[in-house]
Amino acid sequence: MIAVAIAYLASVGGVANGGYFAQSLFVTGGVFAVLAVSLDLVAGVTGLYSLGHAGLFALGAYGTTLLYHAGWNIFVLLPVVIVGVGLIGAILGTLSLRVSGLYFAIMTFIFSLVVTVVLTDFPFTGGLNGIAGPPLPSFPASLSFLGSSLVWCVGLVLLLAVGVVWSIRASAMYPVLLAIRDAEPFAAANGVRTAATKVGVFALSAGLAAMAGWAFSFTGYISPSQFTWTMSVNILVMVIFGGINTRVGPLIGAAFVSAFPVVVSIDPLVQEAIFGLIFLLVIVLFPGGVMGLVGWFWRRIVSRSSTTRHHVTDAAGEPAVTAPIERPARIREVSWPSDEYALECEGIRFSYIRGNTVVDDVDLRVRRGTVHGLIGPNGSGKSTLVNLISGALRPDAGEIRVSSVRVDGLPAHRRPGLGLLRTFQTAVLADELSVRESVTIGLYHRTPRVALRSLIWPLLPSARRDHRRIRSEAGEAIRSVGLAESWNEARVADVPHGVEQLTQLAAACVGEPNILILDEPLAGLSASEVAEVTEIIDDLRAKGVTMVIVEHQTQFIFGVCDDVTVLAAGKLVTSGPAEQVRQNERVREVYLGQ
Amino acid sequence: MLQVLLSGLATGAVYGLVAMAFAVVFYVTKVINFATGQLLMVSIMTVSGLSAIGVPVWLSIVAGIALSTGFGVAIYYGAVAPVLKVDRTGFGWLVSTLGVAIVLASVAAMIFGPTSRAFPALLYHHSIRLFGTSTTWQEMLAVIVAAVVLVAFEVFRTRTLFGKVGMAISGDPEMATAVGANATAYAVIAFAIGGLLAGVAGVLVGPITFANPYLGDTYGIAGFIALMIGGIDKPAAAMGGGVLLGVLSVVANTYINSQASDWFPFVVVVAVLLIAPHGLFASGNLFARWLGRGRRSAELALPAVRS
After folding, report:
1. Which of A211, A299, A535, A541 has the most CB atoms at less than 10 Å from its CB?
2. Maximum distance among all alpha carbons in chain A?
């Protein structure tokens, strides 16, 4: 890593002492690369397609130029524009992310248009003609061997941007961001503040774009035509051309886009047409970009040179579960407070559409250390009740208490901290992550300040320590749900449904639940996997974890549960010890069909 | 005042047609065709080019609209379908349709040159006096065409089986396909209608703007803003947004200053997006919620949970 940085600085020095052509190419390419890297962080990693990066870039450049003319020092301005534009990004993100990803793209697109209009129509920006940027001082005589200060400025800015983004990619935050992109409910259920994290990532990306603008302002005249919406699209093209969500893809894309007009110098109209055609073809034919192609070739070479097949295909040939396994004591022994109920719901009422009550005045009391079954016909409000307890929905009326702490007013991401965790009926995980990485997300709420530390992750001893701990704990949890070691590094996209279900169960277990809510844990599982889940539940019960299980397989429910609550059409039918509920006349009538 | 209103209505009718071209495509495929403005330009440039070499005006108009319709379908097959095949939920189409927009504009500039060319006057010199105001038949035609298109589309959408199947595909393409609807055919037709509407809008506005290869940018952005103001989920709402935007722009030009229409639309759209993110005329927006008819949904929190 250090060797790469030194080699990079040496080559920057080489360019800084090189010819004018190389210098100008490097400066343009470097600024583009910062923009591409910053956009890949939001678009590639977090899945937010920003079309506002030209606007943020413009704010950085114009902010620097205008404040310089107002008498500010250019080096003081670097942190000022980064923080200032970062804040603007945070506001823009907060306003636009409340609706959807498409709305975010549209809002940022309009933001770009507005910035161009303001720069063109207001008198203090110099209008269409633009305005002269501040001069960057040359190195003092003693350092003049370094060459062009502008090249060094861009080189260092690029190093900083790449350093921050690569650090995040290497950190424990990366799986979390991918989960926010592809599996938001899963991330939220594991204590991730998804909305705030998205805003934070966009603000960081905005700050990096502003930094590119700061460096760009030293190149001479800046004018609105350099920051139109086409520039936003160009940045997105760089990212996609090189390979979205890859380390070096955005750098390759930026190099291509900046070199293209220089190398192919023909009629500008033809050039533009060819340019448009190239990025049309890339997105249509190679959606993975250059890095996607490289990866494809690489996999072909590897598969030819080695006779053994990929371990994933090997593992898929075996049954997913390799029982019996010596289980490590994964779950911490929970302390037993004196209160009798671990989870209490009182008078819960909820409706999706006004006037159509889905959960009507339901009480649910779960005794500590017991397994509580929640059954009822389809549409009886079981899953809605689970979503209310886990915080994905808010009740219209009623109280929910976890260990006597009232939680119905708390946001969903606060509940895992209280020991309340859940799984989903159908696991939705991020396809690009490995099984182990997916499970590490379960440790997010127990690891302090991951988001903040991810900015300089590899440099922090504490982060390296945490990284090792997270990996080994996740590996242990995967073992504890009975998955063979060979699954650890398999991509979620390649694993069968049963393994996915067990993966989300492992993610919940690794988070040290006091109360675990399992929403149809057997849905779509094979017989051996069902046996495995039964064993896991017994294990968890032995360790004192309170569980609520929603399930249709009544045999299973009456087999493992201490207490059972029956819902029908949103109303409570009965609740009590399993045996008593099984004998209940109404339950037989409405549910068991006897 | 009435004069201003009428002139705004005519401008808004064209914006509304472009916005509807966006909205029809989005309604069926959930894709925003960012080359919609360029389809308007294709029809304008074709009419201008053909009539300049002596083709009868009516024939060049037919050719222009046919060509923009054809390009609409070509965009679906060339730039949208392949992207959706790889990733149905991704935003790859955003880049590919913007790529098409750039290619169309620069190729048109290569063929016709980057400067403005003449466009047949059509009905532009025929004035009409209405309620004490004076306006051209060309502007009246824009208003009439927009009204007819809007009514025809809504009747078609809600009263015919074909339209109802389209609504089903819009709501849930997988379910609609499962019961036998051909979602691909509907996507092609939606792109064709989008091209058709953009082409018609081009013919309506050509005599006023003349023919310029970069018109697509101007009208594409205006139509897109109209779409955002009205609401993206319903084609009729998009037309409403277009009319509102047209009237407000002309009012701003008249009562603020002659440059106001450059920035005024942005003020309007930002205000609208902050107050009613789904558009003024969409269902489920702020006003509808105030009236107590809104829906609560858990879509953002829980796309994956069904039971």
Report:
1. A211
2. 96
Q: Is A569 on the interface with B (CB under 8 A)?
A: no
In three-state secondary structure terms, B73 is helix
Min Cα separation B102/chain A (Å) = 6
pLDDT of residue A589: 77
Any chain B CB within 8 A of the CB of A273?
yes
Q: Is residue B295 part of a domain?
A: no
A477 CB within 8 Å of a chain B CB = no
B257, B221, B280: which is closest to B38 by C-alpha? Answer: B221
How far is it, in rounded angstroms, from Cα B112 to Cα B46?
Answer: 10
Q: Give the C-alpha separation, B246 to B226, whole Å.
A: 9
In a domain, B299, yes or no: no
Interface test with B, best of A269, A389, A413 (most B CBs within 10 A): A269
Residue A194 amino acid letter: T
Task: Examine residue B122 and state whether it is found in any structural domain, yes or no.
Answer: yes
- B298 belongs to a structural domain: no
Kindly determine whether residue B263 and residue A103, on different chains, have CB atoms separated by under 8 Å: no
Contact A25/A259 with Cβ under 8 angstroms?
Answer: yes
What number of CA atoms fall less than 13 Å from residue A12's CA on the CB side?
A: 22
Per-residue pLDDT tens over the stretch A74-95: 999 999 999 999 999 999 999 8
Is the separation of the CB atoms in A535 and A482 below 8 Å? Answer: yes
DSSP A347: E
**DSSP for residue A47:** -
Say how many domains are in chain B: 1
The minimal CB distance from A277 to the residues B32, B103, B114 is found for B103
What is the arrangement of strands in the sheet containing A341-353, beginning at the earlier edge strand?
Answer: A356-367, A341-353, A397-402, A405-406
Which domains are present in chain A? 2-295 (1.10.3470), 341-592 (3.40.50.300)
A236–B95 C-beta distance less than 8 A:
yes
What does R_g of chain B's alpha carbons equal in angstroms?
A: 20
Residue A356 pairs in a beta bridge with: A353
DSSP letter, residue A44: I
Handedness of CA A551, A553, A556, A559 (dihedral sign): positive
Contact B262 A121 (CB under 8 A): yes
Digit-coded pLDDT (tens) for A438-479 = 999 988 888 888 888 888 888 889 988 999 999 999 999 998
* Contacts with B, A 416-475, CB within 8 Å: 424-426, 428
Q: Say yes or no: A266 contacts chain B, CB-CB below 8 A.
A: no
* 3-state SS record for A359-428: EEEEEEEEECCCEEEEECCCCCCHHHHHHHHHCCCCCCEEEEEECCEECCCCCHHHCHHHCEEEECCCCC
Residue B267 is part of which domain span? 2-290
Strand bridging mode A420-423 / A563-568: unpaired
**Residue numbers of chain B with a pLDDT score lower than 70:** 88-89, 283-307
Which among A280, A425, A428 has the least Cβ separation from residue B307? Answer: A425
Task: Give the CATH number, domain containing residue B22.
Answer: 1.10.3470
Dihedral, CA of residue A493, residue A499, residue A502 and residue A507, to nearest 10:
-30
For the record, the structure tokens of A506 come out as 């492992």
Question: Any chain B CB within 8 A of the CB of A128?
Answer: no
**3-state DSSP assignment of residue A19:** coil
Nearest to A49 among B94, B106, B300 (CB): B94
